[in-house]
């Protein structure tokens, strides 16, 4: 495989490890469990620590297995560099921990994963102002900006109500104002969408979800796309400015979030994620097709009050999603008509598993208000459009006919 030739998404990921020498001709980068790395020349050790040459210092800041995964994610996102973390929340927390200071402002989409919402509450308690805006319209984001705004944060498709952010227009706004645009790409994955195309400077991926894909490893990543001018960011410490400006952001993130904060990915998890990533495109195509079929079936059933899925023509951002994404993803949610108990419905499913993960090969279902968004409280849930009967579905790669039969049979057993 030649690096000069342009290959497709899956071909690139499958053969990426072999672009650098691998021990004993292995096709995968092996699992390196060592946390420390020795050098025969002490001057070389110093040079690596000072960033004057490439090398590994200590396992908290990376090792060969993790580095190979980071390179894979960078290729997926068409970026310039990637840092991996222990979890997706570790990656989002790194943005707050390493880049923001008291008095700064974040403008965040109102429509957020519950744990991200909780993290922003923590940030607010430590002196960072957080302004929430309906990111489906760039005008709302613009209205929330202040001179203290350091970054805008959005999810591509919001979890769990599937609102789609006005990504391209927000990206243009951030570029005009010199603001860092951070996009959580977890719900779409780099196969369906590359945030770089809309001006995102940093891209978040919860590697636990679709990229790993098998529910067997936790991980998260931040990718620098190369489109943001880090010389415009006011919070870069002087010692990281010894690097070229394009490297400032990731240098500070690696030091402040990995070295100092320690949210490091384990090499065993990195290996699981890297192997899972090889089939990302195949799984996303199948899961997205299944999700669209299930959404259409649910929308046509009189016992269902509402279905939220960007692939439906009835979705408020259907046209936007069609313009942005290769497909509409594996996440949908729906509400049952009054009088139908959501717990009883979920218990009648045979294939849909009551569980809290996303992006698994198996279809996972969860009653949102009673579990992952329970701590948020009824008032905040209502402001996000989360009904008490809302069921989130992470659609897997089962045979479509089997899934349709399962969800329909469960409805057939509901009292009307």
From TrEMBL:
Alphabetical keyword list: Pyridoxal phosphate
Signal peptide, first to last residue: none
N6-(pyridoxal phosphate)lysine carried by residues: 209
KW Chaperone (keyword) present: no
Cofactors: pyridoxal 5'-phosphate
An individual GO BP term: transsulfuration
Domain of life: Bacteria
Any single Gene Ontology cellular-component annotation: cytoplasm
Alphabetized GO MF terms: cystathionine gamma-lyase activity; pyridoxal phosphate binding
Entry's family note: Belongs to the trans-sulfuration enzymes family.
Protein name from the UniProt record: Cystathionine gamma-synthase family protein
Species the sequence originates in: Massilia atriviolacea
């Amino acid at each position: 495989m030649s690096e000069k030739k342009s290959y497709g998404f899956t071909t690139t990921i499958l053969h990426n490890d072999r672009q650098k020498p691998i021990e004993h001709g292995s096709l995968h980068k092996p699992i390196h469990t060592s946390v420390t790395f020795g050098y025969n020349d002490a001057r070389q050790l110093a040079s690596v620590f000072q960033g004057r040459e490439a090398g590994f210092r200590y396992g908290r800041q990376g090792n060969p297995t993790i580095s190979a995964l980071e390179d894979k994610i960078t290729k997926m996102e068409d970026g310039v560099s990637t840092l991996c973390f222990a979890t997706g929340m570790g990656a989002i927390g790194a943005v707050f921990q390493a880049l923001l200071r008291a008095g700064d402002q974040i403008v965040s989409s109102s429509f957020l994963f519950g744990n991200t919402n909780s993290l922003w509450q923590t940030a607010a308690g430590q002196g960072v102002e957080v302004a929430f805006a309906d990111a489906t319209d760039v005008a709302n984001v613009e209205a929330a900006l202040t001179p203290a705004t350091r970054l805008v944060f959005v999810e591509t498709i919001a979890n769990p109500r599937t609102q789609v952010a006005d990504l391209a227009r927000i990206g243009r706004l951030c570029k005009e104002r010199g603001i860092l645009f951070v996009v959580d790409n977890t719900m779409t994955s780099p196969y369906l969408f590359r945030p770089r195309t809309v001006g995102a400077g940093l891209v978040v991926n919860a590697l636990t979800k679709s990229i790993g894909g098998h529910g067997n490893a936790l991980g998260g990543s931040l990718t620098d796309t190369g489109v943001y001018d880090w010389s415009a960011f006011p919070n870069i410490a002087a010692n990281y400015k010894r690097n070229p400006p394009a490297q400032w952001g990731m240098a500070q993130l690696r030091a402040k979030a990995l070295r100092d904060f320690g949210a490091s990915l384990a090499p065993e998890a990195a290996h699981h994620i890297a192997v899972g990533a090889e089939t990302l495109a195949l799984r996303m195509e199948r899961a997205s097709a299944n999700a669209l079929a299930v959404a259409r079936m649910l929308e046509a059933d009189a016992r269902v009050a509402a279905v939220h899925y960007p692939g439906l023509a009835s979705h408020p951002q259907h046209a936007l999603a069609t313009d942005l994404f290769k497909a509409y993803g594996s996440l949908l949610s729906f509400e049952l008509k009054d009088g139908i108990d959501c717990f009883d419905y979920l218990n009648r499913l045979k294939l849909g598993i009551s569980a809290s993960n996303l992006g698994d090969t198996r279809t996972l279902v969860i009653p949102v208000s009673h579990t992952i968004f329970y701590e948020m409280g009824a008032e905040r849930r209502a402001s996000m459009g989360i009904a008490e009967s809302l069921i989130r579905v992470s659609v897997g790669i089962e045979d479509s006919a089997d899934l349709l039969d399962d969800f329909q049979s469960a409805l057939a057993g509901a009292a009307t």
